[in-house]
Amino acid sequence: QNDIEIKNLNKTYNQKKPIKALQNVNLTIKQGEFTCLVGPSGCGKSTLLRIIAGLEQPTKGKTLIQGKPIKKPTPKTGLVFQEYTLFPWRTVTQNIEFGLEIQNTPKKQRKKIAKQYTKLVGLQGFEDNYPHQLSGGMKQRVSIARTLANNPTVLLMDEPFGALDAQTRNQMQKELLKIWQKTKKTILFVTHNVDEAVYLADKITIMTQRPGTIKNTIKINLPRE
Ligand code: ADP
Ligand code: ADP
């Protein structure tokens, strides 16, 4: 089954001088696949993710999640950014529970789900900490847990480890693979770091210079631990 299908997507930003960000982008991602999208800065990677997340409308073309068109933000897509975008006045648990509160999930169930994802990202013992009391890697763990707690069909990650130091980044990459293996989520991960893409992905999709288009998808056959 295809979780993500992108057909002939075009995006032009209407400025005084229009900016063509995407041109004829086609992409299919199967359920459970880990795809990395690589390409130079400014080629349109973030634009593509925002369109898949329903945050932005394409000028032309279609985006389907499990066969259904995406027209606005939905809980089916979970987006993780480089900036952690945590709520500073909420604890780790309260941050992770945020989406569940919005969906009116009963308190007891919320607590249970928050506990499960706190454990999944290895933050036991830090439940009552506020974001400013956490390291960068830990903040990104909270951000990932908060997104997964909403049980999205696809996880969209935009340079999530770009702000971390090399050692923490390596550790987070390993953790993300474990999380992926446990949750079997479909992941589309944007990076301009080829090493990172090779380490993480089943498939690497290459986007060329703006207006971004997809020229090639490479299947990686790496042994996994
Ligand atoms: P990055 O290369 O890290 O993706 P950018 O500088 O391209 O960062 O974009 C940062 C934010 O600014 C994005 O959310 C994008 O929507 C917005 N942005 C980028 N370019 C323009 C532009 N020419 N006009 C208005 N907003 C822009
Ligand atoms: P990437 O994520 O690959 O760095 P982006 O999707 O951020 O690329 O940007 C692609 C192109 O579209 C860039 O030229 C950028 O300046 C432009 N752009 C991005 N967001 C906006 C926006 N909100 N308004 C106008 N132009 C934008």
From TrEMBL:
This is Molybdate/tungstate import ATP-binding protein WtpC. It is found in: Cell membrane. Keywords: ATP-binding, Molybdenum, Nucleotide-binding, Transport. Belongs to the ABC transporter superfamily. Sulfate/tungstate importer (TC 3.A.1.6) family. Its EC number is 7.3.2.6. The complex is composed of two ATP-binding proteins (WtpC), two transmembrane proteins (WtpB) and a solute-binding protein (WtpA). Gene3D superfamilies: P-loop containing nucleotide triphosphate hydrolases (3.40.50.300). Pfam families: ABC_tran. GO terms for cellular component: plasma membrane.
